[in-house]
Amino acid sequence: MALELLPAVALASLLLHVARATVDNNTTESCAPARCGDLSVTYPFSLSGVQPPYCGFPALRLTCNDGRRAYLDRALTEQRPYRVRDISYDNSSLVVSVEASTFAGDETCNVPDFNVSSGGLSRLPLKVSDANRNLTFVYNCEVPPSIRLPRPCANHTMGAYVVSDGGDGPTTTGVPTNCSFVSVPVREFHDGMEAAPDRYVGLIRDGFLLEWTAAGDCAACKRSGAECRFVQQSFQCFCSGELLCSTTRQGIDGTAMKIILGFLLAATFLIFACGIATYALIWHEKDRKLRVTSTMERNIEDLVTLHGSFTPKRYDYSEVIKITYFLRSKLGKGSYGTVFSGRLDNGHLVAVKLLHLSKGNGEDFVNEVMSISKTSHVNIVSLLGFCLEGSKRALIYEYMPNGSLDKYIYSENPKGLLGWDKLYKIAIGIARGLEYLHHSCNTRIVHFDIKPQNILLDQDFCPKIADFGLAKLCGTKESKLSMTYPRGTIGFVAPEVLYPTFGVVSTKSDVYGYGMMLLEMVGVRKNVELTVEKSSEMYFLDWIYDHFAQDDGLQTCEIRSEFEEMAKKMTLIGLWCIQLLPMHRPTITNVLDMFGKRLDELDMPPKQNLCQIIEDSAKDLSAENASATNPSNARVPSSCGQPVATMKVKPLIRPMPRFA
């Protein structure tokens, strides 16, 4: 609706401008230049009490004290006195200085207690010139002797230094990062400032440079003998009392004026209706965001109330920025957010994940905080804190110096690969972490996104499960989970998560992802003759069975004989874990038992045939479809050239063990 009204709004604005330019003729008083001391005041400035307001921008109206000193309008500078020392109309610039500035009420200290470049100037159409340098004052820290001022300000030891690039903050060697900073733009840099930092008074008094962008060609207007004015929110050039300068100005008769006014009234109504519609849309969007934020806030508050001191520390967003040194060092970027390195006040290295704005009600953020806060295990990453401040969300983890597992198992550089003994220990460590999540917590946790990218390695290559954004909590007595939408990464997501016909979603869905990850670690995917962009999109069960059943798969993967037992055990366990039906998969506890057995004690799992599963299940299709309300009915993927059918999967004909 708003877009459809844009042409009418544009026409109405044009007509409004023409009508105003025609009928408003109450601007006949002269705008001759005025003086305040040595300062000449003319467009785009005007002098209060001397020139009419239309002689310049409303925000650039000056006041003259004692007929000698000109100041910017204090109503627009937060009552701070900015004195105008010089105006260059040719360069569209002026020099101003801060007067009567004292630090925290200490009248003996002429140091401003606010950042001059931002305090009070934001409402003015002026820009701090890049030609300035920054005079920076530091306090509330151990000030280096080389920049220390000779006397304190309000009982604060102060330091001062000049930065040539216009920046502020700790850009001088030796200044601690925990200092408080106040910056003042200055025009000139006197030699010896570092040796005599108390010369700052002269720098502040001399002022700094501001610039403005001209509206309209005032110079050309003045060359034609006219006056520059700012009328009805726009620049206008006035000639000898006439409204607008024009050598062929034509009047508008009464009939034309009535037509213009009629269009103007209609356009005004359309603008009003458009404004109401726009306001309603903006209000609705703000209300939706407020409700989403309020829901997350309540979830977090419930978490704090429930777990008390065991809840990770909550940080303000300003603290997060400080921890990451203003987001200086980026470790990586994913679909959920960007990770930066940082350091806490106690010197502890951390990884800070800034989350993107999520869809829905921020369930991924709340899941991660609530899930990890319930855990404490050597193979689970530690959440040290979080931030929830409006739309800004961040998670603070312990820092893992060796990164994620995927960069080692997918590396093309042989030196970047891990040895089989380390891979074997990593596989067992991940299984122990999953067992803790599935069975040892007060509330069981299903991760739903087990993959190499979510396994982090500490300095000793001890694996830690991370990224709980898709996790789901369930009671210890629940055997299955309800799913509102599929979750996980293609290639690692269990069949029952996508197609309920394969079985119920449970902790065995994590076992499937773990099995796929084991096969990734063994490296068999490199030998599949498929070309895809992402390794996680390969499906290679047939290749594994065809090669490992013939006992030639390990040679194809270039595994040396002394590590053959480790690799083959990981492969066999992985094949058991990726059985299509959850009932045929082991629990993660069974997986740990398998790692404790010898290789000759493990059986090769039978090769499954998806087509056979569908065909065998189709025999009972007519009976199962008799009831349209059967909760076990679901769709399964098309296979063997058959169309997608609605059916219930039953166990394979060939006997297979069932795991609890």
Automatic annotation (TrEMBL):
Region (Disordered): 622-641
Position of the signal peptide: 1-21
Bilayer topology: Single-pass type I membrane protein
Keywords: ATP-binding, Glycoprotein, Kinase, Membrane, Nucleotide-binding, Serine/threonine-protein kinase, Signal, Transferase, Transmembrane, Transmembrane helix
PROSITE patterns, per database record: PROTEIN_KINASE_ATP (PS00107), PROTEIN_KINASE_DOM (PS50011), PROTEIN_KINASE_ST (PS00108)
Subcellular location: Membrane
Biased composition (Polar residues): 624-641
Residues that hold ATP according to the record: K353
Superkingdom of origin: Eukaryota
GO molecular function: ATP binding; polysaccharide binding; protein serine/threonine kinase activity
Ranges of residues in domain Protein kinase: 325-599
Membrane-spanning segments: 259-282
Annotated Gene Ontology cellular component terms: membrane
SMART domains referenced in this protein's UniProt entry, alphabetically: S_TKc (SM00220)
The name this protein goes by in its record: Protein kinase domain-containing protein
